[in-house]
Amino acid sequence: MVMWFHMATGKYAAMVPNGEARTSRIQALCTQHKGKITKIDIMLYKHPLFLSIHMSIYTSASVLAMKIFHGGFILFL
């Protein structure tokens, strides 16, 4: 599972691999290939910002947290 959490607004979006989740302000799309997350696209609605993160990491039991911007975190669970 991948979860995007925005600390300032408390908004979050969670998704399963190759899935999409959307809240009123946040849309996150996760693409997985052979057990690796290959791409994560995040869009904040009502905000002129589009962030595309390209990654190649293994999904495991460990949790990887990354601070992105505006107090937001992406958690790989």
Could you walk me through the main structural features you see in this protein, from its secondary elements to its overall organization?
Strand 3 (20-22) and strand 4 (26-33) form a beta hairpin. The chain has one domain (2-76). The protein has strands spanning 2-6, 12-15, 20-22, 26-33, 36-44, 49-58, 64-67, 72-76. The strands form 2 sheets. It has a 4-stranded antiparallel sheet with strand order 2-1-8-7, with no helix packed on it. It has no helices and 8 strands. With 77 residues, the protein is an all-beta fold. Mean pLDDT is 55; it is low at 54-70.
SSE layout:
Elements: E1 2-6, E2 12-15, E3 20-22, E4 26-33, E5 36-44, E6 49-58, E7 64-67, E8 72-76
Antiparallel strand pairs: 1-2, 1-8, 3-4, 4-5, 5-6, 7-8
Broad structural category: mainly beta
The share of residues in helices is under 10%
Biggest β-sheet description: 4 strands, antiparallel
Q: Based on CA inertia axes, which overall geometry fits?
A: elongated
Q: Write out the strand line-up for the largest beta sheet, numbering strands in chain order.
A: 2-1-8-7
Unreliable runs, pLDDT <50, ≥5 residues? 54-70
* Count of separate structural domains: 1
Number of helices: 0
Distance between the termini: 5 Å
Give Rg in angstroms: 12 Å
Number of strands: 8
Mean pLDDT reading: 55
H/E topology pattern: EEEEEEEE
Bin the strand percentage: over 45%
